[in-house]
Structure formats: structure tokens, C-alpha cells
Amino acid sequence: MRKGFTLLELLIVVIVVGILATIAIPQFLTSVEKARVAKAKNALGLIAHAEKMYRAERDTYVGDGSDLPTALDDYIELKQVRDDDDDWTYTVTSTVDTFTATATKNAGRAHATENIAIDQDGGCSATHTLAGPDCYNAGEGD
Question: How many domains is the chain built from?
């Protein structure tokens, strides 16, 4: 008697593995993107905290709409946010009484050109589809 698998058995195994992969891969990619969004929201929280510390000391917020201000490094270490994040670009726009920190998805990534923003009151807004319910309609009816 011969030992081994028949062609039909191997074909069934390949089909089952293909079906499982079809289900699992999109879920994995969604989970990876959710992790990237969580990283951006965490970085925005750090930036907001640094802005509040800066304002407590100087009675104004810092940020001119360009890259992340280096003046905030005196309050919270933001080197990792500024230099090591390949997924997002962070900018801060401010006036004396308000600021908005924005994370914009870098080109070449899934959901490119989408962004997440936080303001001085902790209000979150986003164009990113995975940003979560706390980032939609922020400030409306709160």
C-alpha cells in the first residue's frame, strides 16, 4: 500500500488555505492601519500636552503651521515623533489662545492625504476613516 496524499486531498488543502488567507489578510491590514492611527493620536496627545505646558509658562501657544516646533522639546521629548515616524507628518498652527496639531498621512501609504487633528480643548477631528468615533463631529453638541 502506498503512503502519501492524493492530488485531490492536496487541492482541497490549498483551497481551504486560500479561503482562510482571503479572510485573514484584510483583517490584518486593517489592524495594522488602526495601530498607525493610534500612534498618531498618541503623538498628538503628547504635542497637545507640550503646548499646554508651553502656554502655562508663556501665555501663548507656539506653532506657525509648519513642522513640529522645536520649542516644545523643552517640555516633552518629541524627537521620536519628529524624526522617527515615517507614517505621519505633524504640524502645529496656533494663535495666542488656540492651537491645532495635525497629523497628515504620508504619501505612498494606505489612506494617504488623510489627517487627524486635535485642538486646545482636546477636540479631535479627522478625515481618516479609521480614526474612531471620538474624532468625528468633535465640538458639535458636546
Answer: 1
Close Cβ partners of 66 (under 8 Å, ≥ 6 residues apart): 91
CB 60 within 8 A of CB 51: no
- pTM for this one? 0.78
Percent of the chain with pLDDT over 90: 46
Average pLDDT over residues 43-51: 93
Q: Helices marked H in the chain — which ranges?
A: 7-58, 79-83
CA angle 22, 25, 30 (to 5 degrees): 130
3-state helix, strand and coil shares in percent for the chain, rounded to the nearest 5? 45, 20, 35
Q: Could you list the residue range(s) of the whole structural domain that residue 58 is in?
A: 8-135
